[in-house]
Amino acid sequence: MLYYLFFFALRRHFSPLNVFRYITVRTAAASLTALALSLLLGPWMIRRLRALQVKQYIREEGPQAHQKKAGTPTMGGLLIVAAIVIPTLLWADLRNAYVLLAVAATMAFGAIGFADDYSKVVRKQNRGLSAKGKFFLQVLTCIFVGAVLVGLQARGVYSTQLSVPFLKRLHPDLVLHGLLGYGYIWPLAYIPFIAFLVLVIAGFSNGVNLTDGLDGLAIGCVIVSSAALTVLTYLSSNVRFADYLEIQKIPQASELTIFCGSVAGASLGFLWYNAHPADLFMGDVGSLALGGAIGTVAVILKQEILLVSIGGIFIVELLSVIIQVGSFKLTGKRVFRMAPLHHHFELLGWSESKIIVRFWILALVFALFALTTLKLR
Question: Of 48, 255, 259, 265, whose CB neighbour count within 10 A is largest?
Fold first, then answer.
């Protein structure tokens, strides 16, 4: 909106407004707008949620130290989603399909989280949607994302080939092209692609959700991951940088840099209120939306494999739950004292602040490693 106002309507009358043609300027503007919205609307959001009795319910089987957090306002993810979407709409070129897809995916995952959080508030317990129901809705959202990307592939602006770190000339295709010419069964050709999207996007969304167990832990790691994605998006959309780094060129994804900057700015502002001891929790509406947003951007950029490093903490937390559940079902024994992994360290005697900061440090190391792999082949 402001992009159209400044660049198309007013720049002919005031030439300095030409600066808004540059992605870097609009990304900075979007990040600052998102940060300002989070900081300014945070106190109002906390008051409204308290007035509506939208509070956190702590599961009884969790660490006993968490019981004192009961009653803290939750569903603060509504603030995060608003602080992502509004700056993106203000500063991005809304004719760009990738931007619209990222915004739609974020809002869809946020809606799933909202339904889950609302169920908890109504029932007054830490049980919302069933795991199967929540995952089913996530799969539907991933199918929607996949359908849009398949449509963009038909227009020649997207590729279903994977980019493999360290092996830049290896580009396996996730579409079974041999089935495309067989009448009514041609949709089966896209099953591997859609399944991979579910693994990446829904998996990452749940990874962020599982990490959101300590004050500021998940949002701090999201800041690091979204900042790394902002850099990666800019490099991928810039032909000269992409040629130099020998990564897949996606010029149409340049406007996604603004979206990623909005995610980083909104997350930074939310951390102001979510830092230990937290005044506001993001809830599933925030964690699922943030994970879905990051996963969708990674899929668009063809950096799905690199996402394992960019969001390393979220992957580790997700794997810790899978390992714990799998081990208990198969052997009757637990690998960790409690899963996700941050609870394991709590029961080892680590303070909450120490766990949070150390996980932030690891998130930064993971993200920096991901960026250093860009020039390696």
Answer: 259
